[in-house]
Amino acid sequence: MKTFKHAIAILALALVTMVSGTANATLISDPLTSDVYITYNGLDWAWASPVAAASWWPNELMAPSFHEGWRYATATEWASRPEASMFLTVPGDVSTAKNAVAYWNTYFTHIDYSDAVNGYVTSSLNGSAYETWYVRDASGSAPVPEPSTFILLGAGLAGLAYTRKRFAKK
């Protein structure tokens, strides 16, 4: 009888521990550290979530803009995205994959590497179980000015030179 009571007590303790032991992710609002994303083709790529849905009970996935500078990839950028294996810090070791899930998710802390390897990856919210990647212009790379900026600058300098030359003649 005493052994039975001990077994019930241990079982009750185990159940309480399992129920109270469920851990939610703590959403990180600080800027991303360089050890959670990769740089490829002039862009920083972050593995942001194991789902592509704003709400996937009990998780909430934040938009890329939750962190300054991050966004969805354009179609051109997406066409030249990195392979999932490029996120591995040790080739072949999935446990070393760089991921930024804690920066955009309220519950999830994992990635599903096999989903990405099999092509189930996106850079949009589409309500699916696809892995989600976000991008930003690579840190330290300056934006390239548009040709119209050079035309305006050149026209302004030419106008200043003409005005100076005109006043110099008087």
Describe the fold and architecture.
This protein is of the alpha+beta class. 31% of the residues lie in helices and 14% in strands. The chain contains four helices and six strands, in the order αββββααββα. A four-stranded mixed sheet has the order 1-2-6-5. Strands 3-4 form a two-stranded antiparallel sheet.
Element order: H for helix, E for strand? HEEEEHHEEH
Number of helices: 4
How widely separated are the two ends? Answer: 116 Å
Strand content: 5-15%
Structural category is alpha+beta
What's the overall geometry?
elongated
- Give the strand order of the largest sheet, numbering strands 1, 2, ... along the chain: 1-2-6-5
Mean pLDDT: 85
Question: How many E-type strands?
Answer: 6
Radius of gyration based on Cα positions: 26 Å
Main beta-sheet strand count, sense and barrel state: 4 strands, mixed
Low-confidence stretches: 13-22
Helix content: 25-40%
Give the helix/strand layout.
Elements (H helix, E strand, L loop, with lengths): L1 H19 L16 E4 L2 E7 L5 E2 L2 E2 L14 H5 L33 H5 L3 E2 L8 E7 L9 H23 L1
Parallel strand pairs: 5-6
Antiparallel strand pairs: 1-2, 2-6, 3-4
Descriptors:
single chain, 170 residues, alpha+beta, elongated
In short:
The protein is α+β, with helices and mostly antiparallel strands. It has helices at 2-20, 75-79, 113-117, 147-169; strands spanning 37-40, 43-49, 55-56, 59-60, 121-122, 131-137. The chain contains four helices and six strands.
